[in-house]
Q: What sequence folds into this?
């Protein structure tokens, strides 16, 4: 039998008295005001706490098995090592709550708000978190085997080393989540959004990843063996050391992917070369030079800024001669190739970066954009000045410029890093 | 008391037309026209140097014009027309926050990097170096840094 009646519990809490280790089973505490209550190690098994206010309450190591916590407010509550097996927390608010090492096996969190909650080492096996909001939640080493997270929001969640075998992440949003070394073996993740997520060293063996979004995700050294990748989007994904077959890669959709070990974009492979490239890589054949599309490689989704800006990338190994190129307003252009006698027109606020491997020889750049030089630029003296009207010219420590810059009437902003090489003539606007 | 390093300071409000050769670092807050030979030259935002400059290190936040030779140059402020800078290394920092122009260049030439600069000769002083020597107006001000 319970130690107290509902009224006695409410009175004690009102007075700020502790209910640590109290036996509160079978009491109806629905819609009760229990904010900040000390219920550490209390026995609340099967208690009705529907819509109760448990903000910042101390429920650490409490027994809440099969408790009814629908729409309860547990914001900032301490539930460390609490036993919530089979509890119903539908629509509950658990923002910034601490559930680390809690037993949540088979509990229901459908539509619950767990933004910023700490669930490190929590047992969530067979729990239902469908549609739950877990943005920025910490789930490192959590046990999520066979957990249902369909449609859940796990943006920027930390799931490093989590056990996620047979988890259901269908249509869940894990943008920028960290799943380093997580075990997602046999996971069902169709349509999951893993854009810019970190999956380095993760195991996705046998996972169902059809239509998954891996744009700009880090999949280095992950295991994708036997995973279903039909229609998976992989533009910009980092794939160095990934375990996969060419047949699987034939099913993915990608404008380009990155095979550089450091994921720094130095080894980009265009989508239609991906399978051949990977076959050569696996057979130990030479894979240099890397082929990168000179075609636009727009980065799908990310920021509003990048949505506005069309990106162009010219990869190492390509050579462009006597070409005229025109880049529109706010374009982002990166050149790692060799350009000879090319004329480039830059629209307003366009940004042209000559990467460390980029060489522009006998070329001209006209327009009010920004020019960043980490590689080499040299002009043809017959067509001097070769850089006309730039808003900014920045030469990095590895950059080298030989030529003349004619400034616009409002003058050019220059930036030079120590180590750069310049044979530069600067001319005022005419 | 520790000795303060010797320095030649040309204060704001002072103008020199002629050549200055020094074994000490020179700081110019006034106007200097002519030849400058020194281990290092600092031109403060109010300072201006025009002429032939041969130094190891040059930091200019003021106005600079003429033939400049240095090992290391850091520029802000203004570089006037008909200026040539030869240096082993050059740094122009970007003023990111306001996107303001850190240094304005007139018609000028920059030769930076491999073999661009001849090292500044160790100057032979023409006159005996004074003790901390403000080449200064009657009431000296503290040096501007």
A:
């Amino acid at each position: 039998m319970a130690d107290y009646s509902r009224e006695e519990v409410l009175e004690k809490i009102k007075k700020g008295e502790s209910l640590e280790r109290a036996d509160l089973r079978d009491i109806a505490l629905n819609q009760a005001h229990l904010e900040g209550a000390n219920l550490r190690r209390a026995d609340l098994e099967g208690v009705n706490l529907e819509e109760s206010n448990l903000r910042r309450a101390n429920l650490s190591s409490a027994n809440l098995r099969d408790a009814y916590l629908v729409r309860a407010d547990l914001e900032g509550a301490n539930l460390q090592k609490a036993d919530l097996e089979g509890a119903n927390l539908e629509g509950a608010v658990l923002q910034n709550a601490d559930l680390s090492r809690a037993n949540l096996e088979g509990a229901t969190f459908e539509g619950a708000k767990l933004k910023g909650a700490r669930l490190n080492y929590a047992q969530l096996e067979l729990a239902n978190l469908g549609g739950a909001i877990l943005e920025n939640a910490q789930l490192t080493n959590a046990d999520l085997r066979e957990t249902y997270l369909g449609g859940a929001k796990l943006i920027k969640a930390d799931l490093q080393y989590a056990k996620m075998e047979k988890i259901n992440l269908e249509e869940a949003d894990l943008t920028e989540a960290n799943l380093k070394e997580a075990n997602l073996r046999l996971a069902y993740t169709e349509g999951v959004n893993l854009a810019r997520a970190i999956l380095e060293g993760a195991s996705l063996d046998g996972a169902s990843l059809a239509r998954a979004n891996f744009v700009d995700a880090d999949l280095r050294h992950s295991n994708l063996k036997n995973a279903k990748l039909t229609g998976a989007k992989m533009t910009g994904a980092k794939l160095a050391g990934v375990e996969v077959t060419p047949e699987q890669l034939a099913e993915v959709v990608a404008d380009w992917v990155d095979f550089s070990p450091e994921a720094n974009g130095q080894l980009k492979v265009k989508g239609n070369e991906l399978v051949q490239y990977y076959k050569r890589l696996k057979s130990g054949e030479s894979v240099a030079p890397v082929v990168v599309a000179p075609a636009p490689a727009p980065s799908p989704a990310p920021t509003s800024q990048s949505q506005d800006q069309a990106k162009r990338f010219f990869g190492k190994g390509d050579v462009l001669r006597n070409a005229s190129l025109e880049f529109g307003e706010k374009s982002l252009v990166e050149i790692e190739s060799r350009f000879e006698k090319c004329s480039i027109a830059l629209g307003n606020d366009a940004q042209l970066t000559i990467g460390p491997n980029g060489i522009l020889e006998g070329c001209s750049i006209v327009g009010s954009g920004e020019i960043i030089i980490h590689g080499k630029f040299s002009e043809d003296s017959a067509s001097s000045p070769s850089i006309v009207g730039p808003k900014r010219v920045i030469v990095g420590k590895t950059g080298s410029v030989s030529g003349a810059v004619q400034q616009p009437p409002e003058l050019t902003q220059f930036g030079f890093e120590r180590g750069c090489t310049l044979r530069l003539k600067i001319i005022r606007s005419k | 008391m520790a000795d303060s390093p010797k320095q030649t300071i040309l204060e704001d409000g002072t103008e020199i037309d002629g050549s200055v050769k020094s074994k000490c670092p020179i700081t110019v807050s006034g106007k200097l026209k002519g030849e400058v030979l020194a281990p290092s030259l600092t031109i403060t935002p109010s300072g201006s140097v025009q002429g032939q400059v041969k130094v190891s290190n040059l930091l200019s936040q003021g106005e600079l014009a003429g033939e400049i030779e240095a090992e290391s140059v850091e520029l802000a402020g203004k570089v006037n027309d008909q200026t040539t800078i030869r240096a082993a290394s050059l740094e122009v920092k970007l003023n990111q926050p306001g996107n303001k122009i850190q240094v304005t260049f007139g018609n000028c030439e920059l030769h930076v990097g491999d073999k661009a600069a001849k090292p500044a000769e160790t100057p032979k002083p023409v006159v005996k170096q004074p003790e901390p020597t403000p080449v200064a107006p009657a009431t000296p001000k503290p040096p501007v840094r």
User: Anything to note?
Assistant: Chain A has a mean pLDDT of 89. The longest strand of chain A covers residues 400-406.
